[in-house]
Amino acid sequence: MAEEILLEIVTPEQMAFSGQVEEVTIPGTEGEFGVLRGHESLLSSVEIGELCIIEGTKKRFYAVNKGFAEVTANKVTVLVETAESAEQINKERALRAKERAEEKISKLSREDLEFELINLALMRAINRINVADKSQ
C-alpha cells in the first residue's frame, strides 16, 4: 500500500470530504495535477472540473467549482465553491441545466454582459454530467 496523504475538500457550506488517500488529481487552472504524499508545497487555483481521489484500488470522483488548493508534504486542502461526489449528482437536473444554458447562450453574443455567466453555468453543467457518468 502506498503512503497516504490527508485530503480535505471544503465548500462554504460543508466539509465535502475528509480522509486519508493515496493520491488526488486536481483540475488546476494551469492544468490538471496529481498529488502524492511528500509532494512539494504549493498553492494553486482550481478550475471547474473533475477531482479524482484514489484510495487503494477504488477511485472516487467529484465535480468541483472554482477555488484554491493548498498542498503540503502530508496534507491537501481544496477550498472550492461547490463539490459534489459522482453519487450525489442528479444527472437529470444537470442535463436540464445544460439545456437551459445552451438555449440562453445561443441568443447572446460574446459582448453581452451575461455571456460569461451563462458560459460558466454551461461548463458546470457539463462537468456535473461527465462526473455523474462515473458513478457506476
Notes on the structure:
By secondary structure, the chain is of the alpha+beta class. The protein has 2 domains: 82 residues, Sandwich (ATP Synthase, domain 1), CATH 2.60.15.10; 45 residues, Single alpha-helices involved in coiled-coils or other helix-helix interfaces (Up-down Bundle), CATH 1.20.5.440. The protein is built from 2 helices and 10 strands; from the N terminus they run E-E-E-E-E-E-E-E-E-E-H-H. The chain has a 5-stranded mixed beta sheet, with no helix packed on it. Strands 4-3-6-7-10 form a 5-stranded antiparallel beta sheet, with helices on one face. A hairpin with a 2-residue loop joins strand 6 and strand 7. The radius of gyration is 16 Å and the shape is globular. The relative contact order is 0.18. The mean pLDDT is 94.
Task: List descriptors.
ATP Synthase, domain 1, five-stranded antiparallel sheet, globular, 2 domains, Single alpha-helices involved in coiled-coils or other helix-helix interfaces, 2 helices, alpha+beta, 42% strand, 136 residues
